[in-house]
């Protein structure tokens, strides 16, 4: 961080104007025995971003920053994620990027990355699905020029199993007049996704698959298109909390992941205005 530059975990007025309308309203305080007054949401969000950027454990969040305790920030992150705040924020920013002609919906790239999960994992969203392993947690990314979707799976899942779920979970992105767009025209992928059955299912969805064939030599030319997903992985790893999975609960890690995708979109939107 340069001298005189504001730390990235300090929420600006413009970013807060996007987030505040999405936050759920608090229940009114009790008149009798109201308890301690809740900490301001904006300060708590700064604490969440501080943990996301620095990777510091929740219990070591410095109290002198005024962001509240680590447990308070953890609870707000959980509650806001359950209320769908981070996903809606991501969708809003994707729409603004599309309105600013900074989102290319004609093509998308898909790939996966593996990170260490030192504390194992608990799958709370899908009880029937095996939890992430104790050694690694694959994250699957689908990206045009910005990350529209990222999902989390167990360490024993093949990358190709997340191809169609990623495509189907991409939100309907607004931003310009006409019907919101959800599907790209083309999808680029490496040899790990080389299965004809998935090619047919992509074509049934109106998407042209551009997937490298197994058993062929390198030099397919897809690197000129696929570099953007590698860039996405690098941008996500810039958030230290996402380099190693410390969260046991998968919903907390996914909350950090979705929030990081939204912050990446916000930074790109700010650069496009300058």
Number of strands: 6
Radius of gyration: 20 Å
* N→C terminal distance: 20 Å
> Helices and strands: which structural class?
alpha/beta
**Mind describing the biggest β-sheet?**
6 strands, mixed
**Approximate helicity band:** 25-40%
The shape, in one word, is globular
Average pLDDT for all residues: 82
Q: How many helices?
A: 8
Outline of this structure?
The protein has 274 residues and is an alpha/beta fold.
Structural overview:
- Helix 2 (41-54) packs across helix 3, helix 3 packs across helix 8 (250-273) and helix 4 packs parallel to helix 8 (250-273).
- Strands 1, 2, 3, 4, 5 and 6 form a 6-stranded mixed beta sheet that branches.
- Strand 4 (186-189), helix 6 and strand 5 form a beta-alpha-beta unit.
- It is globular, with a radius of gyration of 20 Å.
- The protein has helices at residues 13-19, 41-54, 70-82, 85-99, 163-169, 196-204, 223-237, 250-273, and strands at residues 107-117, 137-143, 149-152, 186-189, 208-211, 244-245.
- The chain has 274 residues and is of the alpha/beta class.
- Helix content is 38%, strand content 12%.
């Amino acid at each position: 961080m340069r001298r005189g530059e504001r730390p990235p975990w300090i929420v600006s007025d413009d970013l807060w104007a996007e987030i505040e309308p999405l936050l759920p309203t608090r229940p009114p305080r009790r008149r009798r025995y109201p308890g301690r007054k809740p900490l301001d949401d904006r300060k708590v969000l700064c604490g969440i971003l501080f943990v996301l950027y620095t990777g510091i454990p929740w219990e070591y969040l410095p109290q002198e920053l005024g962001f509240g305790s680590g447990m308070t920030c953890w609870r707000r992150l959980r509650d806001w994620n359950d209320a769908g705040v981070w996903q809606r924020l991501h969708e809003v920013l994707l729409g603004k990027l599309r309105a600013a002609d900074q989102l290319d919906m004609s093509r998308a790239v898909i790939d996966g990355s593996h990170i260490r999960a030192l504390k194992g994992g608990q799958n709370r969203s899908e009880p029937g699905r095996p939890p992430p392993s104790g050694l690694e947690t694959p994250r699957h990314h689908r990206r045009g020029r910005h990350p529209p979707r990222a999902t989390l799976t167990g360490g024993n899942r093949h990358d190709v199993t997340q191809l169609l779920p990623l495509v189907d979970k991409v939100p309907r992105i607004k931003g310009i007049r006409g019907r919101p767009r959800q599907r790209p025209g083309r999808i680029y992928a490496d040899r790990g996704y080389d299965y004809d059955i998935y090619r047919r299912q992509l074509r049934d969805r109106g998407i042209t698959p551009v997937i490298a064939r197994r058993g062929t030599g390198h030099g397919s030319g897809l690197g000129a298109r696929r570099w953007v997903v590698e860039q996405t992985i690098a941008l996500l790893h810039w958030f230290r909390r996402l380099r190693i999975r410390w969260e046991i609960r998968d919903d907390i890690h996914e909350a950090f992941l979705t929030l990081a995708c939204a912050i990446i979109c916000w930074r790109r939107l700010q650069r496009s205005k300058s």
